[in-house]
Amino acid sequence: MRKKIFPTLFSHTEPAQTLGAHQQMEFSGTVRLLVWNILKAKRKQWQADFEELVADRDLVLFQEAVVNAPSDPLFNENNRFEWIMARSHQHPTTGIVTGVKTGSVAPSLQTTVHRSTHSEPIVNTQKMLLETHYPLKGRTDTLMVLNMHAINFVGVKKYQSQLMQLDAVLNAHHGPVILAGDFNTWSPQRMANFEQVNSAAGLQEATMNRRSKFSQLNQHLDHVYFRGLDLHAIDSLSHYRSSDHYPITATFHIEDTV
User: How confident is the model at residue 124 (pLDDT cuts 50, 70, 90)?
Assistant: First the structure.
């Protein structure tokens, strides 16, 4: 029998997976965010960094997140965060599933998984956009949170195809938005295309001073965009080394009434 070398892909109809349990019923006032491509939680120091980083957060967005992995107890047995996992593919030998994962102290009211129309070459894997909506104290609208890992190793037209998915999601929601993740904006053209979609939807980038691990490209891959919120602080934490991406923390304020 030939050994399977390519990952198993999840279908377009595959629902998100829910882990853990939320701590509170809604968001009110301050929303403390963590965004991080966690490199599949592979490095030895990752668990200690994870526990330290999420301790004071309300909302956590991971890319290259995993389930069916050694880190599962951190999520399955978590009584502070409800975790929503959008699954892209499963490793052919280890069985580890990779995708994006959003954690929140409040429950998700609506969850939608958007898989990229195109796949990355050779392994044929798709990239993910996870849409979750959360209740806001004293309001009838919701906070829409978009956790995105953008497609890589493809031409601009295929990259734009995933941006069209993002554009449709943004235009369908009229309340506050947090959009964050690894957008693979390693070229000026990719960055310009990404910025155009966000600008058209009224989002602005939460800019920060940071060192880049991708200085040879002179671009940052990880970003935070928002709408309908007040940004109080944002930082790139370059002293954490348990991934090839630095974690980003941000603090927003949201009004209880509009």
Answer: confident
Contact (CB, 8 A) for 250 and 219: no
Measure the CA–CA gap between 95 and 99, rounded to whole angstroms. 13
Count, residues in the chain: 258
In a domain, 123, yes or no: yes
Q: What is the DSSP letter of 64?
A: E
State the angle between helix axes of 188-200 and 156-171 in degrees (0 to 180), rounded to the nearest 10: 20
Domain containing 216 equals: 8-254
Q: Give the C-alpha distances (Å, rounded to integers) separating 247 from 37, 156, 194.
A: 7, 27, 21
Q: Would the CA dihedral through 42, 68, 9, 164 be positive or negative?
A: negative
Reported pTM: 0.94
Question: Is residue 104 situated within a structural domain?
Answer: yes
Q: How far apart (Å, rounded) are the C-alpha atoms in residues 231 and 254?
A: 9
